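FW: tagging you since you asked about this chain on Friday. Here's the raw sequence from the shared folder, copied in full. Didn't touch anything.
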Amino acid sequence: MGLDSPLERRVAFARNQGSNRFDRSYAVSDAQGRRSTLKDVAKLAGVSLTSASMALSDSPRVSAVTKEAVRAAAAQLRYVPHAAGRALRSRRVKTIAVVLPHSSEHVFSHPTLTALLEGVVSVAAENDLSTVLSTSRTERDEASAYQRFMHGREADGVIVAAAAVADANVIGLARSAYPLVIVGRAPHLTGAMTVGLDDLHGGDIATRHLLEVHGAQRIAHISGPLGHQSAQDKLAGYRAALVAAAIAPDPMLEVAGDYSDGGGFEAVEELFRRNAAFEAIFAANDQMALGAGEALRERGLAVPDDVLLVGYDDIPLARYANPALTSVQGDMAAVGALAATRLLGQIDGRPAPEPATLLPTGLVVRRSCGCRAEPTPASGSRELQSVSTQHEEGRLE
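HL: got it, structure written out here
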């Protein structure tokens, strides 16, 4: 069936070019970094500036066809009205969104993510706000969620966690004017507000403990997925500690995992397939460390008598493992609370503090690394380290 008018043809064109996904080319800014304007939207849709403004505000004086053309053009250009702040102040839905671009099974099986959510929800509740959690299995589902929050005004702002560095949806959202806080470092997104743990430091102190306290020289590292900044930072900290000890990092001792216990088990199997000799393992999370310990036991090796083992995150199960697991600790609930506090500041239009905030990491020493002292299950001995002075200390205002 043919298209009846030039405007309807423009609607079809905009649909084909823009779609509802953020993983297309980024028209939100030009080569000089200029953000798309309402004038750009009007030009693409082929309507007047006034009509474009009225269409985006859902005025009854504008036809449905014109509204569809303007909205399709705005989606293609990743345009968010400069009046977004005024709209949020006058028409808030009193809801903040947390987007985790993973399946719900993944999210609720990782204690660090549930701790993060607890922190966010606590601050939201104190401010009489609701919290919406969005999980997704595909980029298409994720993009649809962002569109609902931004253009459907289902949330006043968004916290994004556990996203890959190259996640096109997050990049598109960061380039918009929508209130946003990213959990973890995002050095590739200049000016984006971020709150996270000092994972570079965490990787360093875990590796230095094995080097300096236990004299280990051949330390294997099971990283997280290296498309994620936190995994890259832990790996960089591990390598930095080796270099500081005059030990060249060995690629044969580095295996990428997936943050699951099965991933830790498979990583140890991969080390044996490589015939890589190792005395110790530093895993980028506790679940992989526990899986690694199981793989070692199946091969007749004991922790820590034969292989020293250190994890990351200090999940509750770590203290009850056999032997109890030495682990890098960071307060993810505090990260969530601070991220929510920062987001509310953006929504309220308050001047932003330094955009990047890192909270400290420390080492909880237990028996799996070879230390003899067994702390009580409720505490553990902590070797807390200071955070770089380039970052604001994590205090809730």
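FW: Residues 111-126 form the longest helix (16 residues).
HL: agreed, and The two ends are 60 Å apart (CA to CA).
FW: great, closing this out.
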